[in-house]
């Protein structure tokens, strides 16, 4: 069945999953649903301790068994030890058919690949995957479908009951004996625990895993004791050096600086650029450069940002400190500056992933965005973006908050250099659709800027602005004229991955890569 | 059927309600249940405003209709305008058969009595009632049963689905246009919104009512935008003069000072009185006097309280400021000192009612209590307490956190002057059981102290302590020898109220007062 972004979703996938095809970014507007709920236990004996000696023991206490769904968060990023630590014990116990529902997975989790191959793990649900896990999925090693969800879409899936988490394992930089978890402090400080809150609220069993036990009560708790069954202390939950890096140096890439300058000029010429505006940006070189150049103009014109949101990096914290941003709401910290800021700056707040981006709650923060500045691997002439599958067909990225912020913001700007090496970023059809073009307003490349024709208001606002505006087709044509039209990826037939729209429908599928191509 | 505190619960009540009789404070230990869940709507249009012009309009938007259950919180105490404001509109619309599920109701709500009489309101669920509402219930004016729940029991009832809230009306001292509510600031500052959090999370529709609209986002929010459907701004949500009073003057009543001294001596001679202990007390004269006298000894001995919790009043805040308490967790503010403290002192934290006292979550704060100091209208020779029904049979009090803290604390101390005028506080059988004797460890009167024989460990700990220990029967006999054994209240047959145990079973019933007695 063809969906609203023109992708043909195989009947077999619809039958296997019971899912619907994507029908438009706001097609589920005002649909009512009964929220999911966990099965929990009471009355807890007031004298009962929640401390458990080891991962192995807590798995037994939680009743781990074949076929369960277990969850993890990715706030430790490439420094995470928790996923491997838990999966190793599950593997030792000979448990099979596990589905991992993680907020994201990265190269740190390469050690679970053999468990995919031997059937310990049969399902992966994640914002994205990288490295060996992506290869394993793309080459058909995973028995079930890999489901890629946006950050908002993951909470939605949990709250709507599309996924039911049997046991949530939550790595906590600090925790007390009764399960109050904080991201701040400890040996593996990660700033916030936003993505894990839904897991705590909706999983049947919740296990806190920490390397830093602190006196009771550990307040203000990111995750409260009332959701936590057990607490396990281990030696190390992460590698601090890989959790957060130092501040990224401002880019010296002239293409990126030029695109950042285009972006800033675009932003300041929209009607949304006024005192109190709301803004989100990513951590790519061009995004960070545009934050810096926007900050200069804000200072010159005396315009303050009311609210900055999303995953937070140093440059936004600097603007907060300088008083150019009034408040930051934070779901993820990309560097040490951000981690320090959320711990110390009273105007820098942790929010949950549901508050950030869930489309099926009563109004997430993304709905209040004036601007979001995003990157993309590919953008097609319908403004559809691909942030998950590389142009060779390999799963290697993550949806993150891309579709969520695009759907919420009044002005969604995607920055992409026209060519990534020999690969055109602007193309006729993206390899895989992750963010629907109807939610993307502007594409900025180093060869020109295209405004989505759906946004005549923005085209009108820019009519006297001196920027190199082009149509999206013109940008594609320039790209193709330089490197030629790329051959389509030759996929196999088998569907290995599902790109889930944030509303729970199927945006696209990812097919197996033909072995000859991979070898 | 006779329950575990010896009360005969009529079959009709069991049939009408489908409830079970109380079988012991921990009888439901480790029972599993699936949590309740609301029916909500998504996807919200990012451009949609949540602001609604009037209570009347918001009632229509929420689809108010006959038979609905609506909820309120009582953080504005006797200064609350919200209940009357909403009920007046519902009454005007001619809606019938409404059940009010409030965290508590007081004399401020006397204006709803005519709505009980005319069938607008047919059910009341509350921690307690006072004044005219109590009279109306006790004299049989309410069509259905009034259900009295503890603070923890109310959250349990909501989370287990015993009560389903159709529309929650949440008065918010400050709110932004998207529904982020705070208790701090504004014209009707009430400190915390703890009791309303479950309403926001479990009601189908949630309406924020404020008199102080503030810029977006109102952070840190006690209740988040993601739970809120609509925001209504009105002129005044409360009368600040009645929300919080100035600090209570220390009592000069020698009986109370003596009981406070007994209490302190008891506390410091238990094994639980050591650095880092956890403590809760009420706002009665003797409780406050005991906090002050305990503070002196803590200072002398260099012993700090690790955590103070519950409803908070000035004396606890003073100990926090002096460094004698490390942290306070707060569900209700009784005076201006407490309201100022929670706004300004970084070691004074707001917690939710579920975190405070819900018996059916994975571990509430009451479970961590070493001591709770409580008051009681009556205590019987089985240590059962009555805090809801006066000895004339009229409903006139509230369960509050009494049964919750008693069940959680390692040492539950009840202070009651032996005689309240001509009424003995220690008696053979309490008029109504609200807190089961198995959870009450010590009763302190001005005529002596009784330790529950179940607590041989405490009896042993006190064997060399010079305090006037007596058996509970001896205390009762002294009381009866002075004022005589009181005649039992002559109730009618009809059951008008149910005292619900915190686990959702029936602790006791309250019968109609015979008209001749009331007139």
Automatic annotation (TrEMBL), chains A, B:
It comes from the Bacteria. Pfam families: CitF (PF04223). It catalyses: citrate = oxaloacetate + acetate; citrate + acetyl-CoA = (3S)-citryl-CoA + acetate. Keywords: Cytoplasm, Lyase, Transferase. Its EC number is 2.8.3.10, 4.1.3.6. It is found in: Cytoplasm. The keyword Metal-binding does not apply. InterPro entries: Citrate_lyase_asu, NagB/RpiA_transferase-like. One of its GO terms (cellular component) is ATP-independent citrate lyase complex. The keyword Cytoplasm applies. GO terms for biological process: acetyl-CoA metabolic process. One of its GO terms (molecular function) is citrate (pro-3S)-lyase activity. Coiled coil: none annotated. This is Citrate lyase alpha chain. The lineage of its organism: Bacteria, Bacillati, Bacillota, Clostridia, Lachnospirales. The gene is citF.
């Amino acid at each position: 069945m063809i969906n609203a972004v023109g992708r043909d979703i195989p009947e077999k996938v619809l039958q296997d999953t019971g899912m619907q095809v994507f029908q438009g970014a706001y097609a589920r507007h005002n649909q009512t649903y009964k929220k999911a709920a966990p099965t929990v236990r009471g009355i807890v004996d007031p004298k009962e301790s929640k401390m458990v000696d080891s991962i192995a023991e807590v798995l037994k206490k939680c009743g781990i068994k074949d076929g369960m769904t277990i969850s993890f968060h990715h706030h430790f990023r490439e420094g995470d030890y928790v996923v491997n630590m838990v999966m190793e014990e599950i593997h030792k116990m000979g448990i099979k058919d596990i589905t991992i529902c993680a907020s994201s997975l990265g190269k740190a989790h390469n050690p679970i690949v053999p468990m995919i191959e031997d059937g310990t793990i049969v399902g992966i649900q994640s914002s994205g995957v990288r490295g060996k896990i992506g290869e394993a999925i793309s080459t058909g090693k995973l028995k079930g479908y890999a489901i890629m969800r946006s950050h908002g879409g993951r909470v939605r899936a949990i709250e709507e009951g599309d996924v039911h988490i049997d046991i949530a394992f939550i790595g906590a930089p600090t925790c007390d004996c009764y399960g109050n978890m904080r991201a701040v402090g400890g040996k593996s400080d990660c700033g916030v625990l936003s993505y894990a809150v839904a897991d705590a609220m909706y999983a049947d069993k919740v296990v806190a895993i920490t390397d830093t036990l602190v006196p009771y009560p550990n307040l203000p708790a990111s995750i409260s004791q009332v959701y936590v069954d057990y607490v396990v202390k281990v030696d190390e939950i992460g590698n601090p050096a890989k959790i957060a890096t130092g501040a990224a140096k401002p880019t010296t890439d002239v293409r990126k600086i030029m695109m950042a300058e285009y972006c800033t000029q675009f932003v300041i010429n929209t009607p949304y650029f006024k005192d109190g505006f709301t803004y989100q940006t990513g951590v790519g070189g061009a995004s960070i450069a545009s934050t810096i150049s926007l900050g200069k103009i804000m200072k010159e014109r005396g315009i303050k940002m009311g609210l900055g949101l999303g995953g937070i990096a140093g440059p936004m914290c600097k603007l907060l400190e300088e008083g150019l941003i009034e408040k930051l709401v934070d779901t993820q910290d990309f560097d040490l500056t951000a981690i320090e800021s959320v711990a110390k700056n009273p105007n820098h707040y942790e929010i949950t992933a549901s508050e950030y981006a869930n489309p099926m709650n009563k109004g997430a923060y993304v709905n209040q965005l004036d601007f979001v500045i995003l990157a993309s691997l590919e953008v097609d002439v319908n403004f559809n973006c691909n942030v998950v599958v590389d142009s060779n067909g390999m799963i290697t990225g993550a949806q993150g908050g891309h579709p969520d912020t695009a759907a919420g913001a009044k002005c969604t700007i995607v920055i992409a250099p026209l060519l990534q090496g020999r690969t055109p970023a602007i193309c006729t059809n993206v390899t895989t659709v992750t963010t629907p073009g109807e939610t993307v307003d502007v594409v900025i490349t180093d060869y020109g800027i295209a405004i989505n024709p759906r946004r005549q208001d923005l085209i009108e606002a820019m009519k006297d602005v001196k920027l190199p505006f082009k149509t999206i087709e013109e940008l594609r044509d320039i790209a193709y004229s330089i490197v030629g039209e790329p051959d389509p990826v030759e996929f196999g037939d088998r569907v290995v991955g599902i790109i889930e729209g944030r509303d729970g429908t199927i945006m696209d599928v990812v097919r197996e890569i033909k072995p000859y191509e991979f070898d």
